[in-house]
Prior knowledge:
With 134 residues, this protein is α+β, with helices and mostly antiparallel strands. The protein contains three helices and three strands, in the order αββααβ. It has helices at residues 3-47, 75-84, 95-107, and strands at residues 52-55, 58-70, 121-133.
Amino acid sequence: MSDNKMMELADKYRELRDKKSEMEFAVKQVNEELQIVERDLIGAMTDNECDGFKHNGKNFVMMTKEYPSAVIERKAELYDIMKEQGFEHLFTINSNTLSATIKELKGCNDDELPEWLRGLVKNTEKVSIQLRKA
């Protein structure tokens, strides 16, 4: 490969990397604005006691997702007790697997966390907007 071709490729590579950085920055800015507008829309929907509506051919639905996670100070204890209860297959445990398992356990227990998990798992909720075609 000639030096000239290598320099052309190096310039193209740098150009594409710069373009990627610019685009990532633009996406970051849009995501920040989107979070603000989503927060405001959730507030407006909550104020109007509305969990969904149609507008301009789209459905806007307020969704609440749960994100259970181990209480940091008691993580080892959580793992031990989960293993005792027959969930040793979860380790190494990732957040999606833990979340699905907790959801399943709650579903079998009148939507309550089983007693043996109380104080070991905390649950964080996040409300967001889901946009679909009407």
